[in-house]
Design a protein that fits this description.
The protein starts with a helix and ends with a helix. Among the domains are: 155 residues, no CATH class; 211 residues. It is built from 34 helices and two strands. By secondary structure, it is mainly alpha-helical. Helix 10 runs parallel beside helix 13 and helix 22 packs parallel to helix 24. It has a two-stranded antiparallel sheet with strand order 1-2.
Length: 806
Amino acid sequence: MGPASKKNKKKKPSFRKLLKTSNLKLENKQKNRQFKQQSSAKKQRKEQRKLRQAITDVSHKTLKPLERYKKKLVGEEEEDEEEFLESLPVDMIDEDDLEQIRAMAKKASFLTRDISSCAPAHAKKRKSEQPLKKYEKMPRKMQQEEEKELIHLLPIKDKSGLIPQSMEKPVVPEAEEEEEPIDQDEFSKEEEPESVPLLTPQEQLELRAQTLTEKKLRMASLSSAVLADPHVNIKKLKELRAMLMETDPCVAVTVRKLVMVSLLEVFKDIVPSYRIRPLTEEEKAAKVKKDTLQLREFEEGLVSQYKFYLEDLEQTVKDWKQKKQKRSQAVSLQSYKGLAEVAIRCICDLLVALPHFNFHNNIVVMVVPLMRDPDRKVSEMCCAAVSRLLKQDKLGQASLAVVKVISGMVKSRNYNVKPEVLNCLLCLRIKEVEMKKDTEDTAPKKKFMSYKEKRTNLSRMQRKWKKAEEKLQKELLEAEASENKDKKIKLHTETLNIVFLIYFRILKKAQKSILLPSVLEGLAKFAHLINLEFFDDLLAVLYGLITSGDLTYRESLHCILTSFHILSGQGDVLHIDPLKFYNHLYKTLLTLHAGGRNEDTAIVLQCLDIMLTKRRKQVTLQRAQGFLKRLSTLSLHLLPDSSVGILAANRTLMHAFPKCDILLDNEMQGSGVYLAELDVPEYCNPQNTALWELHLLKRHFHPMVRKFAAHLMKGAPSEGSGALSMELSRRTPVQLFEDYSVKDMTFNPPVAGPSSKKKEHFTIGDAFLDSELKTLIDAALQNESEQTSLDFTSQHTEPETAVTVN
């Protein structure tokens, strides 16, 4: 019995188990409670909706009065009775029944009762009904028409008796009769002030200056009050913004411009460095301190006034675009252009100065369409603002918003936009993006242990220590700001995907568009960030564009530069030999512009650097020698700045390929003759020629060209007598080309001025060709030295005495 009783004996559940409830039951209870609340709320809303509908029906319904029946005359009653008796089958009805029918006809029934009344004809009061209250017994007020005055006339006598006669009293317009003389008097009185002589132009200018000064002082006082204490005087922003509605036509344009600029500076000063979000219902209902309440009021007022200010600016631009004349015609259509330009300038400043604040996306949507405006000043202003925003944006949120709007605009306009719009994308600060990696790298790594793993693998004390350790690691990650870095890379990746989408659309659908140079330049800049999957197709498209012959020289250079940017990054893995691009550049080098428009030289120098210097291991010696010879020939007919850049590129090429110094000798190696007209550098026999162009460049008028030519003739040494200075040797060919640019039509370095023609000293000696003249001059100089003094009196007296003697 012992073991059996132990088996049958039930264990009492512990208090903790009794308290425990399964999660499923708790969820079911919560769902049932929520369902009941929702159903009751639905019923309540339904009843309230019915009640509101009934109230609206009653309020809109016009009450109709009950029908009133006039007492019929004695003759009419007799006629009705006769008609009623004729309609009845009197032969088949007894006299008693006939009398009963007549009595019922005289009583009110559903036939004679007014249908508009709602109560039943024979309603009986129930015992359970409550007695009516006083306000229910009172009659309702009907919509009564105005009682018109009647004039009683003489009655008319008829067989039935006297019939009263009346007519409506005619309403005499007394006011109109009296107004006529009054209006004339008033009109004569109103004309009197208008007959005052007009102001002279000088007085009008003085009055305008005085009014403008008052408005300026008002603006200054309001702005200074807001800046002094924004939290207290935030309401004065509304007064300042109200001045945008200035209606005085003399000063309206000037005042509105000044108010726009004043509000711009005020907002730039008082706007906080964070984004203001709207408060939730719980936050509004919660009790807060006085300082917190004041801060909330300030933020709410600031956001609302900022929003109204942006709406005013946008409306000003729209009025100018649609050529509308609004606001009491205080501003003429001719003045709206200047007003709109000030508004656009304010919008652009807000775009750059407050990228973190509210409504920034709205500002982007306003500015980006103006980048393609026909007005050159407006488009340049907006493009410059967008470029500044992209340059200073470090997080990437503003850049992403701008790129999205530009992508939508380019697509909606069917690629009919200005190239400056896409040139702004070159200002993007994108250096690192998320690249596609292997599945092992992309698999999410478990940073922390799950709850089940902790329960199974760790003890209680170990779990406690693990929890503290994970908390510490999270704090360290927050301190390192690694999350911000990941977020920034994600934003940059999304931005670059949209940029490449714009570029690839234009390459595919609008190859003859004016946007192609901007697209190629953008691809050349961001080519190292393109995914490997697109490399083959992109190179095929670029080579097709080059061979098509539809591109300009600058566009073909951009195609070559883009191709080598692609191959210099991740493209090293593909092992592609771009021989066709080398041949095309070698073929078109001699077509480089030799005049003032030599901006293409910088792109040529970049192509040479990335094609020959950075890929020196993939370039043959014959190809390098061919380019060196052709570049030396090219430098003869270019401007000085381009010649300096080309000679600097030759110097870099000789350092990268030391065996190119054989071109400095007159001896020929191997068989064959140099073929300068051949377009393939490997097969033109460059080793059988010499760089004779350096002897001509050594006598060039530009001192830097002479210096580089002499340096190359000595083999471009890094040290010694023929070496360049440290400053020149460290500069790249592109930098040297920009330093000695003749873009501004100035000679760099400046030419020394001519020496002065005035001689500082004279040479005394055998400088006279005539010998007799020389002897006379010497005798005169000798006599002058011997004579000590002059006596002018003796000379005058001697001839007088001689005359008297005679």
